């Protein structure tokens, strides 16, 4: 994992302004292109939003999606042989899983996953590195293939001013994972997904205020860039934030969430500057 420090600027929104981050950002290559996604209607806009904005389906997608794949999908006893395939090693503050094996459950493992956990008395940090592919050809398999490449750094600030910070640069493939759930749009998005960017929350009264700058690619559906400032997650309405975010792909979408003022699972939507019907969780 490369840990050199640099100023991280995605230039997602087409202006020359640079956000100020409480945490210095890492010098990582960029997996996501952030171009080509078409915001056609509320449904396609919500799909993009829940893969990029905090407090929606994936909470903080840049950390929760890869950890969901690792902890909930790959780490079960019906996929791995715990401790042996992949092989687990501990070294100081780093845990590493290394594999070039076939588990007893019929899954072929190659590559590695590692997490370095540190606590400097101010912040708790997890630095994840993925270079892993798992596949299966057996009948009744849970998935055909899962592949992950890249890095995630998650920092728990625990107190003001920093609440949480996530920087990610990830490539993920899970073709067919959602096929059995009859979610073709998710199956397309997860077949070749990239997440690159920064999501940082400051502690505020009764919640968190996020600023974000990222690029997201959702497989054959295309990619988009994301920008947001003072995007608030409040305790008074779990699952519905407050604030605005701009998503730019082949066209532009602007979402305005009303938080506890509405608490209806929806956001006001503008497509290319024109008011559209609200985008909602249930489509």
Overview of the structural elements:
It is a single chain. By secondary structure, the protein is mainly beta. The protein has one domain. The chain is built from three helices and 15 strands. The strands form two sheets. The chain has a 13-stranded antiparallel beta sheet, with helices on one face. Strands 1-2 form a two-stranded antiparallel ribbon. The longest helix is centred in the N-terminal third of the chain and has 14 residues. The N terminus is likely disordered.
How is the topology of this model organized?
Elements: E1 5-6, E2 25-26, H1 42-50, H2 61-74, E3 87-91, E4 94-102, E5 107-119, E6 124-136, E7 145-156, E8 162-173, H3 184-190, E9 193-204, E10 207-218, E11 223-234, E12 242-248, E13 252-258, E14 266-271, E15 274-280
Antiparallel strand pairs: 1-2, 3-4, 4-5, 5-6, 6-7, 7-8, 8-9, 9-10, 10-11, 11-12, 12-13, 13-14, 14-15
Percentage of residues in helical conformation: 10-25%
H/E series: EEHHEEEEEEHEEEEEEE
Reported for the largest beta sheet, the result is: 13 strands, antiparallel
The Rg value, from CA coordinates, equals 19 Å
User: Residue-averaged pLDDT, rounded?
Assistant: 91
Strand ordering within the main sheet: 3-4-5-6-7-8-9-10-11-12-13-14-15
State the helix count.
3
Shape category: globular
The total of beta strands comes to 15
Q: Which percent range describes the beta-strand content? A: over 45%
Report the structural category: mainly beta
Q: Which parts are unreliable, with pLDDT below 50 for 5 consecutive residues or more?
A: 1-17
Q: Count up the domains.
A: 1
Distance between the ends: 39 Å
């Amino acid at each position: 994992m490369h840990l050199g420090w640099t100023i991280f600027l995605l230039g997602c929104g087409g202006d020359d302004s640079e956000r100020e981050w409480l945490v210095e950002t890492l010098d990582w290559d960029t997996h996501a292109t952030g171009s080509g996604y078409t915001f056609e209607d509320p449904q396609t806009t919500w799909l993009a939003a829940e893969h990029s904005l905090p407090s929606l389906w994936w909470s903080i997608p840049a950390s929760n999606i890869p950890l969901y794949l690792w902890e909930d999908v790959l780490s079960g006893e019906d996929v791995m042989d715990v401790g042996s395939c992949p092989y687990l090693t501990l070294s100081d503050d780093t845990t590493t899983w290394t594999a070039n094996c076939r588990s007893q459950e019929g899954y072929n493992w190659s590559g590695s996953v590692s997490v370095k956990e540190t606590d400097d008395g101010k912040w708790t940090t997890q630095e994840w590195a993925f270079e892993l592919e798992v596949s299966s050809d057996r009948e009744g398999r849970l998935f055909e293939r899962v592949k992950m490449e890249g890095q995630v750094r998650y920092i728990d600030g625990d107190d003001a001013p920093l609440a949480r910070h996530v920087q990610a640069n990830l490539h993920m493939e899970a073709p067919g994972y959602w096929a059995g759930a009859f979610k073709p749009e998710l199956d397309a998005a997860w077949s070749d997904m990239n997440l690159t960017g920064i999501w940082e929350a400051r502690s505020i009264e009764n919640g968190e205020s996020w600023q974000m700058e990222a690029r997201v690619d959702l497989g054959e559906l295309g990619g988009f860039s994301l920008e947001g400032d003072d995007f608030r997650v409040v305790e008074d309405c779990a699952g519905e934030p407050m604030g605005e975010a701009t998503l730019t792909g082949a066209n532009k979408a602007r979402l305005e969430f009303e938080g506890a003022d509405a608490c209806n699972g929806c956001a006001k939507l503008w497509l290319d500057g024109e008011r559209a019907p609200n985008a909602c969780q249930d489509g």
